[in-house]
Amino acid sequence: MKRLRSSAPGWIVLVVLVLLWETATRLAGSLYFPPPTQIAETARQMWFSGPAASLFLTDVVFEDVLASVARMLGGWAIAGVLGVSLGVLLGRSATAMDYCGPIISFLRAIPPPTLVPVFLALFTLGTPMQLATIVFGTIWPILLNSVDGARSVDATKTETARAFRLSKVDWIFGVVLPAASPKIFAGLRISLSLSLVLMVISELVGSTEGIGYRLLYSQRQYDFPAMWAGIILLGVLGFLFNTGLSAVERRVLAWQPAHRQAVAAGTGA
Questions:
Q1: Statement: residue 79 has pLDDT above 70
Q2: What is d(CA 113, CA 90) in angstroms, rounded to the nearest whole number?
Q3: Distance, CA of 155 to CA of 196 (rounded, Å)
Q4: Exposed, middle or buried, 184 (CB in 10 Å: 0-12/13-18/19+)?
Q5: Residue 262 has what pLDDT?
Q6: Are 134 and 115 in contact (CB under 8 A)?
Q7: According to the 3-state scheme, what is the secondary structure of the chain?
Q8: How far is CA 228 from CA 37, 60, 126, 211, in A?
Q9: How do residues 25-46 score in pLDDT, each as one tens digit?
């Protein structure tokens, strides 16, 4: 309840901005900037005018929206597994980053969209190319934060683990990963936002489905209400995914005293 009250001013500001948007667009009468009510009606027709048997969802939802979300989450999950695994290995090594650091810095400096032609040549057109683009662009925040987190294991925990002669598996999953989890989640949050952007970019090239393809198609057809509906959908998806990941993070890191204090301060407890 306290969290809802603390977020109420933000929702009030959002409502005011939408009302101002509605008024300004109707006064301007621009073809390129339709009012929110027209965008909402277009969104309803595009996504929520299907039969009751499919929960009123249209084919566009199943063919474009869900396909894009699956690719985005799939690429993000692959990047998460690879980034955390490599990051922990590199972080716990005394010399690995000395050799791999320059290579990582070089690769992460390459803008992922510029590699789309390369991925088109290496992979088949469609989902493989799109997943490769998402994974390449989102792995670096996870990898570097995992390295930093793996290096930050407290010396006392290290000595205690040695005293109990923990196995490598127990050491990694019982000591290193819990200690590194705050920084790992920080990398996951950054990469989640990047995955949404790269999902759209990857669907702009040679794709016949997805939110990015639908945005480009609407623009070429001068269907600006549909284009704006797609843009707003991306914002809503980003908000929902970030909120969901934050909820998971709060639950997973609830055992940490510093995290409990931060949550209590944020909720006014």
A1: yes
A2: 27
A3: 38
A4: buried
A5: 46
A6: no
A7: CHHHHHHHHHHHHHHHHHHHHHHHHHHHCCCCCCCHHHHHHHHHHHHCCCCHHHCCCCHHHHHHHHHHHHHHHHHHHHHHHHHHHHHHHHHHCCCHHHHHHHHHHHHHCCCHHHHHHHHHHHCCCCHHHHHHHHHHHHHHHHHHHHHHHHHCCCHHHHHHHHHCCCCHHHHHHHHHHHHHHHHHHHHHHHHHHHHHHHHHHHCCCCCCCCHHHHHHHHHHCCCHHHHHHHHHHHHHHHHHHHHHHHHHHHHHCCCCHHHHHHHHHHHCC
A8: 11, 16, 24, 12
A9: 999 989 999 999 999 999 999 9
- Between 45 and 265, the more confident residue is 45
pLDDT digits (tens, 9 = 90+) for 98-146: 899 999 999 999 999 999 889 988 887 889 999 999 999 999 999 999 9
* C-alpha 258: how far from chain center: 25
Instruction: Please write the tens of the pLDDT for every residue from 138-189.
Output: 999 999 999 999 998 887 777 777 777 778 888 888 888 988 999 999 999 9
Distance CA 31, CA 45 (A): 19
Asked if 46 contacts 226 with a C-beta cutoff of 8 angstroms, the reply is yes
Task: Residue 189: name the closest of 239, 224, 147, 153 by CA.
Answer: 239
| pLDDT given for residue 206 in this prediction | 76
Q: What is the pTM of this model?
A: 0.88
Q: Give how far Cα 58 sits from Cα of 48, 85, 232, Å.
A: 6, 39, 18
237 within 8 A of 69, measured Cβ to Cβ: yes
